[in-house]
């Protein structure tokens, strides 16, 4: 597989009580993307795929907040997760909303084919947070 066709993943963390906006906690391509996705799957965290959302989030730096311009995109993803989260409700504590925002920690993982990506390891302390995957 050529470098330009490798899988890509972006992991986001959001806690309405702590974070102003979702935060990029890990990103990578190739084997790093696979590791991010594997962690989500091993933890029983839902995997969500969306090429257009992934393409918008792929250029964000690790540690940065999602910009205001992407709030609507990320909110739509969270809404879809809530709609298909019957499995989550059975395996994890229920997702509660607070003034329209998800109040428990979620971790978003976005997978996308993209040629330019900085590889980052998933921090140990962030690997316990919930996730979803896009691609």
Automatic annotation (TrEMBL):
<dbReference type="GO" id="GO:0005886">
    <property type="term" value="C:plasma membrane"/>
</dbReference>
<feature type="compositionally biased region" description="Acidic residues">
    <location>
        <begin position="118"/>
        <end position="127"/>
    </location>
</feature>
<dbReference type="GO" id="GO:0009306">
    <property type="term" value="P:protein secretion"/>
</dbReference>
<dbReference type="InterPro" id="IPR029025">
    <property type="entry name" value="T3SS_substrate_exporter_C"/>
</dbReference>
<feature type="region of interest" description="Disordered">
    <location>
        <begin position="115"/>
        <end position="135"/>
    </location>
</feature>
<dbReference type="InterPro" id="IPR006135">
    <property type="entry name" value="T3SS_substrate_exporter"/>
</dbReference>
<dbReference type="Pfam" id="PF01312">
    <property type="entry name" value="Bac_export_2"/>
</dbReference>
<protein>
    <submittedName>
        <fullName>FlhB C-terminus-related protein</fullName>
    </submittedName>
</protein>
């Amino acid at each position: 597989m050529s470098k330009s066709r490798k899988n890509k993943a972006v992991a986001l963390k959001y806690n309405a009580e702590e974070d102003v906006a979702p935060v990029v906690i890990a990103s990578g391509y190739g084997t790093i993307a696979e590791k991010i996705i594997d962690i989500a799957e091993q933890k029983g965290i839902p995997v969500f795929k969306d090429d257009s959302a992934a393409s918008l989030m792929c250029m964000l730096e690790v540690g940065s907040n999602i910009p205001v311009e992407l709030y609507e995109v990320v909110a739509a993803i969270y809404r879809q997760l809530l709609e298909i989260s019957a499995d989550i409700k059975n395996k994890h504590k229920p997702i509660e909303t607070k003034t329209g925002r998800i109040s428990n920690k979620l971790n978003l993982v976005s997978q996308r084919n993209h040629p330019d990506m900085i590889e980052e390891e998933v921090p140990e302390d962030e690997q316990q947070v919930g996730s979803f995957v896009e691609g």
